[in-house]
Each structure stands twice: as C-alpha cells, then as structure tokens.
C-alpha cells in the first residue's frame, strides 16, 4: 500500500488485516518501487496522489518492468473521468473511488488476487508445456538423426560391401545434412535450457591455450578443404596465465561456434584465434579474412534466429547461443567487421567470477 494519508492507511490496512492479508505500507514512492522489485507483492494498492512521482507513474514503471511477474495494481482515486483514462493508459487493473467503501475494497482485492492466481497458474502450465515440448521434440529428432549418421558412416566404410563406391559423394552430402540437423537440435535444446534457467554449468580452471589448440586440431580439416590457414596465437610469456574458471564443455562449444562460422564465411586467407591476458580478464579474438559483415547486419547480430542475408547463413542460433554461454561466464562478446575484409569476434572473460 502506497499512501501518505494516515487516515486512509489506518482504514484500509485494518480492513485488509481483518481478512487475513499481510500489508506493507509506505508513503515513499521511491521506497515503494525498491520494495516491489526486491520482493514482488501479490497486489499493489496505490493512491494516485503521492508525494514525489504520482501513482500513475509508479503504475507505469511496475507494468513496464519485464523482470517483474504480473502484479495487479488497484488505484485509489477521485471520481474523475480523466483519472480513469490516465490510470488505464498507465496499466492500472482496477479503481477504488474515494472515500473507499470497505466492502468494495474487499471485493476488488479478492477479484484481482484471483486474476493473479489464474495468470500465475497459466504461466506455470505454459512453461511446463514448452519444456516438455522442447525436450520431447529434441529427443525424437536426435535419435533417428544419430542412427542415420552412424548408418551412413558404415556405408562409406564399406561395412555392407564395396559396391557403393560411386555413391560416396552423395553419402557425404547426406551425412553433412544430417549432422547439420543434429547440431540444430542440440542448439535448440541448449538455447531453451539457458532461457529457462535450467542450464547447469560446472566451473573449474580451464586452460584456454590448450582448449583453443584442441579446437584448431578438430576444425583444421574444414580449413584445409578451403585452403585456409587455421592457427592459434598467444604471447609465450603469458601462456601459463591464460586460465579462467569456466565450464570447459560450454567454452569449447563457444570456440567451435565462432571458429566454425569464421571458416564458413572465409574463402581465402586465414582464421586465427588470438589469446591475450589482461589485468582482470582474458580476451579470445577469432579473426578471419572472410566476406565481412555490413554495419546494418551487425545490428542485432546476436539475436535469436538472426540468420543474415548471405546464402551461407546458418540457422540463426549459433551466435545467440554463444552470447548465452559468454553471459553465463559473466563475460562479454563483441564484433568488429568490414564488408569484404573480414571480421573479429572478441570474447572477454573475467579472471575472477563474482559470487
């Protein structure tokens, strides 16, 4: 309850407490907003005339805060049509007219709390449905895709005879297509887990020098096919200092995403992983001499399903997932690119994570 009138507070608070409601009262707008963010209430009872910013502005800030759950706002106002219009525009859910009738107060409080309960219940069901859908979908897709990939590999090796030599090129294309689909399924599941807050990371010391060299070795065949040089560089005096606390698997996937993208969009020249130790953080820069990214496409590049306009674009999840991994490590990622000259994706990882 936000009200600076002692008389109103006493009347409304005593009425609500008799019905078993727990009421917190403040006459400070700024204090009210802080309390609402720190410990979201089930309902806000708000006088439109408050000391510094009016009740309409408080309502607007509550409704526009995407980090808050649904909180019904019950405005206490004079019988004035302009007040109703202003309150509705701010996002108020209902109104009480001064002087407030006790029965009307209780009826409207009960009604708004039922509304909140219904919305909370709906959100829980929706979240559970989405979780079940994503998990089941990815499971149902992953199993046959994995089986097909293994079968194709056996065919290529001649497990079922040598009469398939003329089909090797087609088998290779099918294998790559299935691998792409499998990677997309894995990305969808990981993106969902990050967004739902269900991704569990295990933080241990990770040697970025050793990890980047592993990535180079694994992706070098792709670079060789395109006649690209793929290397990792670092200051030899810093080689023993390029260690951060992180989830090794997720940092590996981050590097695979960034380096894999660089190879895909580079037709000649090189792709290089550059490691550098700073005072409070380590940078991982993936630099290529590829086609580059226009300024217009750099805007929102890390958004979900942002595919770009190039014919070699992916599914739009790789960079978004990379951002999720970096932020989970309390780091940052940025891009600098010139069309036709190449790109540099730089990851900043802190040496000490905040608790």
Please provide a brief summary of the model.
The chain is α/β, with parallel strands linked by helices and 355 residues long. The chain has helices spanning 6-18, 29-38, 55-64, 81-90, 102-157, 168-195, 208-225, 248-264, 295-298, 318-328, and strands spanning 44-47, 73-77, 94-97, 204-207, 229-234, 243-246, 270-277, 281-288, 332-338, 342-350.
Explained architecture:
- With 355 residues, the chain is α/β, with parallel strands linked by helices.
- 50% of the residues lie in helices and 17% in strands.
- It has three domains: 6-100, Rossmann fold (3-Layer(aba) Sandwich), CATH 3.40.50.2300; 127-195; 204-350, 2-Layer Sandwich (Heat Shock Protein 90), CATH 3.30.565.
- The chain contains ten helices and ten strands.
- The chain starts with 5 loop residues before the first helix and ends in a 5-residue tail after the last strand.
Task: Report, as a whole number of angstroms, the end-to-end distance.
Answer: 34 Å
Q: Share of helix among residues?
A: 40-55%
Overall structural class, as computed from helix and strand content, comes to alpha/beta
Output the strand order for the largest sheet.
5-7-8-10-9
CATH architecture of the largest domain: 2-Layer Sandwich
**Order of SSEs:** HHEHEHEHHEHEEHEEHHEE
CATH class of the largest domain: Alpha Beta
Count structural domains.
Answer: 3
Number of helices: 10
* Residue-averaged pLDDT: 84
Query: What's the name of the CATH homologous superfamily of the largest domain?
Result: Histidine kinase-like ATPase, C-terminal domain
Give the strand tally: 10
Globally, the shape reads elongated
Strand content: 15-25%
Rg from Cα: 29 Å
What CATH calls the topology of the largest domain is: Heat Shock Protein 90
Sequence stretches where pLDDT stays below 50 over 5 or more residues:
none
What characterizes the major β-sheet?
A: 5 strands, mixed
């Amino acid at each position: 309850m936000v009200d600076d009138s002692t008389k109103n507070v006493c009347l409304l608070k005593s009425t609500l407490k008799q019905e078993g409601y727990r009421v917190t009262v403040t006459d400070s707008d700024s204090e009210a907003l802080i309390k609402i963010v720190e410990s979201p209430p089930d309902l806000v009872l708000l006088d439109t005339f408050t000391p510094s910013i009016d009740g309409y502005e408080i309502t607007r800030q509550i409704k526009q805060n995407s980090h808050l759950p649904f909180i019904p706002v019950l405005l206490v106002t004079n019988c004035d049509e302009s007040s109703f219009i202003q309150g509705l525009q701010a996002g108020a859910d209902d109104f009480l007219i001064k002087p407030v009738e006790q029965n009307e107060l209780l009826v409207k409080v009960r009604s708004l709390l039922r509304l909140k309960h219904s919305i909370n219940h709906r959100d829980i069901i929706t979240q559970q449905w989405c979780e079940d859908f994503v998990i089941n979908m990815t499971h149902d897709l992953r199993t046959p895709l994995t089986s097909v990939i293994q079968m194709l590999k056996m065919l290529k090796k001649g497990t079922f005879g040598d009469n398939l030599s003329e089909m090797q090129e087609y088998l290779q294309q099918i294998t790559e297509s299935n691998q792409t689909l499998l990677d997309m399924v894995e990305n969808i599941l990981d993106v969902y887990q990050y967004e739902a807050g269900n991704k569990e990371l295990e933080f241990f010391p990770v040697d970025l020098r050793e990890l980047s060299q592993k990535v180079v070795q694994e992706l070098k065949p792709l670079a060789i096919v395109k006649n690209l040089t793929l290397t990792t560089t670092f200051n030899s005096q810093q080689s023993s200092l390029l260690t951060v606390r992180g989830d090794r698997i997720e940092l590996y996937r981050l590097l695979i995403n960034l380096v894999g993208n660089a190879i895909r969009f580079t037709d000649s020249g090189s792709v290089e992983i550059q490691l550098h130790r700073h005072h409070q953080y380590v940078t991982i820069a993936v630099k290529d001499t590829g086609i580059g990214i226009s300024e217009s496409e750099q805007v929102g590049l890390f958004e979900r399903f942002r595919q770009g306009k190039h014919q070699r674009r992916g599914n739009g999840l790789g960079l978004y997932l990379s951002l999720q991994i970096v932020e989970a490590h309390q780091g940052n990622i940025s891009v600098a690119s010139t069309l036709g000259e190449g790109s540099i994706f730089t990851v900043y990882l802190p040496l000490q994570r905040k608790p």
